[in-house]
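TICKET: design request
STATUS: open
ATTACHED STRUCTURE:
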């Protein structure tokens, strides 16, 4: 019997986003396969997490493409990006906590490419005058990741309604990112 690797990964992602400490036995049960079959696909938890990382990177790349971050205003592009990432936020929240993915020489170059694309969006917003220039694009990118993970956890715990996910992230992020209006007295000077 052939094992559907995508099904196994998505089942593992669904379980691990709810219970990050799940054992390989629990992952196998969630995927409807035996532990031995799971181990033939993934030698251990690290191999499974690395495969989930590749899935997360692919999902982020697809969300970036769907969001058309080079089109329209940077503000609208951020809204589209958050909405496009929303379905994948629980997986990204899990990956966000997996320190081994972001330490040392084994860091996947896919994250750096995603970071650069998101930072480019923030730079575009700064260049157009939409976003503050006193916050670095790298920091704004990290802030976005933190908000995505926090919102995913809040939705999973039932503290936030899923329908509010995009609105809450975008409003909090852009409320802090937008360049404040100059006071009328400064404009007249």
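STATUS: resolved
RESOLUTION: sequence designed for all positions
ATTACHED SEQUENCE:
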């Amino acid at each position: 019997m052939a094992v559907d690797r995508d099904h196994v990964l998505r089942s593992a992602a669904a379980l691990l986003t709810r219970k990050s400490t799940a054992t390989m036995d629990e992952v196998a049960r969630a995927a409807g396969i035996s532990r031995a079959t799971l181990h033939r696909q993934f030698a251990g938890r690290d191999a499974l997490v690395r495969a989930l990382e590749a899935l997360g990177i692919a999902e982020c790349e697809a969300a970036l493409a769907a969001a058309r971050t080079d089109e329209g205003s940077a503000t609208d592009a951020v809204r589209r990006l958050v909405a496009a990432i929303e379905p994948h936020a629980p997986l990204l929240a899990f990956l966000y906590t997996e320190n081994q993915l972001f330490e040392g020489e084994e860091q996947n170059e896919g994250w750096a490419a995603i970071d650069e694309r998101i930072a480019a969006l923030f730079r575009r917003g700064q260049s157009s005058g939409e976003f503050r220039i006193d916050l670095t694009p790298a920091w704004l990118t990290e802030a976005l990741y933190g908000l995505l993970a926090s919102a995913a956890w809040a939705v999973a715990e039932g503290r936030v309604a899923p329908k509010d996910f995009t609105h809450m992230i975008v409003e909090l992020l852009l409320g802090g990112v937008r360049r404040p209006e100059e006071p009328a007295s400064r404009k007249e000077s």
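CLOSING REMARK: The radius of gyration is 19 Å. The chain has ten helices and no strands.
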